[in-house]
Amino acid sequence: MSALFDAGLSQRVACRSTGTSRASWHRWHKATAPAAFHIVRSGTQPHALTVHERAAVLAACNSERFCNSAPRAIVATLLDEGQYLASASTFYRILRAHGQVHERRAIATHPARIKPELATTAANHLWSWDVTKLPGPAKWTWFSLYLVLDVFSRYIVGWEVATTESTAIAKALFRDAVREQGVPPGQLHIHADGGAMMKAKSLALLFADLGISKSHSRPHTSNDNPYSEAHFKTLKYRPGFPEFFSSVQAARLFIVDFVRWYNHEHRHSGLAFLTPADVHYGRAADVLVKRNAAMQ
Is 143 helix (H, G, I), strand (E, B) or coil? Predict the structure, then answer.
């Protein structure tokens, strides 16, 4: 290969003539090339500051005159007075070596919010609720679906479709749901996200009157309320879910059919494919016994 180069052939022609790829030639040439010469320096730099000069820089920074000034401002001030101790970067390097480069302001710190754990062993002990938008007849028009779900049974205990989001609607919904389910004070806990309506004072006062405790999701964390979010996906992925609703009455009629199907016909994958009504009203054991008998 070297002889071909000496004859004046280019690298490409030489590699093609010998059947060698150019990548192989580069690897061979790199392996046979002499090692690069490295200069090894030892000792201190000729312009390095002495111990006394470094002490002078540190003393200037900690003096009463410059204790509240930035290193660049200190260097500029001393230059105006005809004195030069070191560059601003050297000031920072010396201060950093002595642990004096840090945030001086009192920065507020907030502890991480604990992830809420939703767990229950019986119906009507833990409810989850949220509000989602249903498309209206015109662009940028929406109807609000309020929906309350029992976490243990996934049973829809209350819902409402309205043209607006209102705390008054939510209060009436919970008052009716608690009465229909016969929930005694001190038994129920309700979880929701951190929306303004969910944290409204009037709604909190209603919960206090009914003996209901409450919790909220962490900010910007939708999966802290997974049961309501998953339920809304089930709703909007239904084959009959329309592109839009012509009126609020049409939306209510659709939700009536959906709630009936979901509570009494839908075999929920999170409930061993039992219906929410079977679990909510204690019929799950009988259904499982019948299934087992059919399999036998």
Answer: strand
pLDDT, tens digit (0-9, with 9 covering 90-100), for 40-97: 565 667 788 999 999 999 999 999 998 888 899 999 999 999 999 999 999 999 999 9
Whose tokens are 């002490």? That residue is: 55
Residue 188 in contact with residue 152, Cβ under 8 Å?
no
Closest CA to 60 of 33, 94, 36, 10: 94
Q: How far apart are CA 161 and CA 250, in angstroms?
A: 10
Q: Which residues are CB-neighbours of 183 under 8 A, at least 6 positions away? A: 124, 210
Q: Is 110 helix (H, G, I), strand (E, B) or coil?
A: coil
> Closest by alpha carbon to 150, among 180, 172, 171?
180
pLDDT average, residue stretch 28-33: 73
The overall longest dimension of the chain from CA atoms, in Å, is 102
- For tokens 């705390």, the residue is 167
Find the helix or strand (DSSP H, E) in which 156 lies. Answer: strand 156-162
| Dihedrals phi, psi of 285, to nearest 5 degrees | -60, -45
- Please count the other Cβ atoms lying within 10 Å of the Cβ belonging to residue 280: 23
To 5 degrees, how large is the angle CA 14–CA 15–CA 20? 150
CA atoms within 13 A on the CB side of 214: 20
Cα distances (angstroms) measured from residue 276 to each of 119, 153, 280, 294? 17, 5, 6, 21
Question: What Cα–Cα distance (Å) separates residue 208 from each residue in 107, 122, 148, 178, 233?
Answer: 36, 22, 18, 13, 31
- What contacts 66, CB < 8 A, 6 or more positions away? 60, 73, 74, 77
pLDDT of residue 236: 93
Residues 131/97, Cβ–Cβ less than 8 Å: no
Confidence at residue 97, expressed as pLDDT on a 0 to 100 scale: 92
